[in-house]
TrEMBL record:
It comes from the Bacteria. Gene3D superfamilies: PK beta-barrel domain-like (2.40.33.20). Pfam families: MOSC. This is MOSC domain-containing protein. Residues 24-174 form the MOSC domain. Signal peptide: none annotated. It comes from Chelatococcus albus.
């Protein structure tokens, strides 16, 4: 999977006007600069995730767009779980880009319409995953050789430049200048 210069493709796009766990697949979505996905419950300049709003509703929204790599779904299927695009609440499902290996500040250029997402961090998996499908939470968490927790449930980003994104769109990865910072949960 590519992590620099090259890229992959968008395999699905999803959104939900309500705070639902899963998002409905769409023919296309419109990204709005500084806001997120048009018509999505998490769109906005300030945080929209309900647990974060309860703590401080004025926090900047670093979670405007949620992306998951389709390779995770392949891994989950091999483990006996049935999950597909939009099921885990992501807006953009990708293939061919190692999302989890990207450094903070990476820019993903999606399609030919000029849409750009800047990666802010990792999605922190929550117990709703097990409510959706028992065993899913454990399946999207792992440990590296040093015993550090690995969160595999996707990454989060903000919209730098708006545009329409649809399945089949090419993804170009633009890495930030070094030194690179590992993704942390946001």
């Amino acid at each position: 999977m590519m992590t620099g210069g090259g890229g992959g493709i968008v395999v699905a796009v999803s959104r939900s006007a309500g705070h639902t766990f899963s998002k409905e697949r769409q023919d296309s979505i419109r990204l709005l600069a500084g806001l997120g996905v048009e018509g999505d419950a998490h769109m906005g300049e300030t945080v929209k995730h309900r647990s974060r709003v309860a703590v401080d509703p004025s926090q900047p929204n670093l979670r405007q767009v949620h992306l998951i790599h389709a390779e995770l779904f392949d891994e989950l299927r091999a483990a006996g779980l049935s999950v597909s695009a939009g099921d885990m609440g992501e807006n953009v499902t990708t293939r061919g880009v190692d999302l989890l290996a990207l450094p903070r500040g990476t820019r993903l250029h999606l399609g030919a319409d000029g849409a750009v997402i800047e990666i802010t961090g990792l999605r922190n998996p929550c117990k709703q995953l097990d409510d959706f499908q028992p065993g899913l939470m454990k399946a999207v968490l792992g440990r590296d050789e040093q015993g550090n927790l690995i969160r595999k449930a996707g990454i989060m980003g903000i919209v730098l430049a708006g545009g329409v994104v649809q399945p089949g769109a090419a993804i170009r990865v633009e890495l930030p200048s070094p030194p690179h910072q590992r993704l942390e949960r946001v």
